Amino acid sequence: MASELQRRAVRHAMILVSGRGGGVPQVRITAAGRHAEQAALARIRRLSCAGLDVAAFVNQMNPIVTQRVSNGTATIDSPFWFTIDPESHLVTSIYGEGCDIDPGDYMRWELLTDDFIKTADVVHSPRGVLTLHEATGGHPERSPIYVEVMIPHGMAQELLVALRSANGENWGTTRLNRAPGDPMFSEHEISFMAAAAPLIAEGVRRGLLVGEATEPERLDAPGLVVLTVGGEVESMSPGAEEWFSFLPDDDGCQDGVPTSVLAAAAAALREAEGSGAGGVSAVRVPMTNGRWADVQGAVTGANKDSKVTVIIQQAHPNRIAPLLMSIYGLTVREQEVTQLILRGGSTTDLAHALSLSPHTVQQHLKSIFEKTAVNSRGELIAKIYFDCYDLRTHDNRDRIQAEQPIRGGPKVSA
Questions:
Q1: Distance separating alpha carbons of residues 172 and 370, to the nearest angstrom
Q2: In this protein, which residues make up the domain named HTH luxR-type (predicted)?
Q3: Residue of higher predicted confidence among 274 and 155
Q4: For the chain, which domains are there?
Q5: Is the pLDDT of residue 395 over 70?
Q6: What is the CA radius of gyration of the chain?
Q7: How many angstroms separate the CA atoms of 311 and 381, rounded?
Q8: Using H for helix, E for strand and C for coil, what is the string for 58-72?
Q9: How far, in Å, CA of 149 to CA of 154, rounded?
Q10: Which pTM was predicted?
Q11: What is the 3-state secondary structure (H, E, C) of 187-255?
């Protein structure tokens, strides 16, 4: 229950927030403004290809974003950034300058508290952009976190954006905040963030791969190699050569680098020359062990200083499914049902996706609940987070403080 002091602060903030209704203010944009906006998007795209880990990418991108969409309060300068596992939509890290959010406390709010504009809401939003003002019909005081956290920290508005890649995968979210008296987030600012989101998602996706490749935690961690424009190796991650050994060499190798890696680098360079921005490429290659690898190239730098970063990883990596079996003893079908629940699927969605009757879905749910000792879908999602992802978010918090690259996916104790 909010204190009387909090209630007064809420009323004061509501007076200072312009535009009390649920609508979004319209702002006219000049030709110069459109040009600046396109230039900002091009800069974000180039950064997404620059071979940066997530923290370095976000740090360089922050001023580009906030120049177009102002963010900040008396105590908060940069947006808050969250990485999520696209397989489960569960948070794997929280990042922001001066961010002191406890991952466990935040996820208890995300998963167990009835409130507005959470991660699940925005990743299922067709546009992928939500404001607290719109979600509450112009009455943000309806939100517990607004009353109990935002107002005491000088925040009166919030814009939540899903970092959704072009293929529909969600790699994270960002929250931008404004102080009482600041203008409302305009429709034009919201549209800019919607346009920037896929580019940012690509940078986050690549950043997670860079972090996992440069400081591998698991045997199948991605491999990374940096090449010059002439195809010479400049650096390699610890596991890159092992990946090379699984790639076909029917056409031979150049200095030990398989043709498929060189081809991905060449394709990225061609794309960069054609677009005038950072070039990317991706190809799926059959490996000698019978599996498939995704080989992805990205151009960094410009002109004679250009380098090409190539990342190799297993195609269709799914790291949560094996844990659902080993921890809870779920069958393959129960794993499929659970993963769809994690991504917000209804009984009808599950029945359609798995070609099952709703009754059969309910029977699988009953078995899953019994094996995991929960009574509802919400409890199931929370249990999987605290069993499989809580250690990851806390580990990433420690890594951020130590200025080490963060990693994605679940993490359980050995």
A1: 31
A2: 327-384
A3: 155
A4: 4-212 (3.30.450.40), 221-314 (3.30.450.20), 321-401 (1.10.10.10)
A5: yes
A6: 23
A7: 31
A8: HHHHHHHHHHHCCCE
A9: 9
A10: 0.88
A11: HHHHHHHHHHHHHHHHHHHHHHHHHHHHCCCCCCCCEEEEEECCCCEEEECCCHHHHHHHCCCCCCEEC
CB neighbour list of residue 244: distance below 8 Å, 6 or more residues apart:
223, 253, 256, 257, 258, 261
Bridge partners, residue 258, by sequence: 253
Q: For 286-293, which contacts have Cβ atoms below 8 Å and span 24 or more sequence positions?
A: 286/248, 287/246, 287/247, 287/248, 288/245, 288/246, 288/247, 288/248, 289/246, 291/246, 291/315, 292/316, 293/243, 293/246, 293/247
111-140: pLDDT as tens digits: 999 999 999 999 999 999 999 999 999 999
Q: Residue 270 to residues 205, 273, 339: CA-CA distances in angstroms? A: 22, 5, 38
**Residue whose tokens read 């190699």:** 225
Cα pseudo-dihedral 102, 65, 60, 298, rounded to 10:
110
Q: Please state the three-class secondary structure of the chain as a single string.
A: CCCHHHHHHHHHHHHHCCCCCCCCCCCCCCHHHHHHHHHHHHHHHHHHCCCCCHHHHHHHHHHHHHHHCCCECCCCCCCEEEEECCCCCCEEEEECCCCCCCHHHHHHHHHHCCCCCCHHHHHCCCCCEEEHHHHCCCCHHHCHHHHHHHHHHCCCEEEEEEEECCCCCEEEEEEEEECCCCCCCCHHHHHHHHHHHHHHHHHHHHHHHHHHHHCCCCCCCCEEEEEECCCCEEEECCCHHHHHHHCCCCCCEECCEEHHHHHHHHHHHHHHHHHCCCCEEEEEEECCCCCEEEEEEEEECCHHHCEEEEEEEECCCCCCHHHHHHHHCCCHHHHHHHHHHHCCCCHHHHHHHHCCCHHHHHHHHHHHHHHHCCCCHHHHHHHHHHHHCHHHHHHHHHHHHCCCCCCCCCCCCC
Q: Which of 60-69, 219-228, 243-252 has the lowest mean pLDDT?
A: 243-252
Q: Are 71 and 79 in contact (CB under 8 A)?
A: yes
State the pLDDT at residue 25: 67
The mean predicted confidence, pLDDT, of the chain is: 89
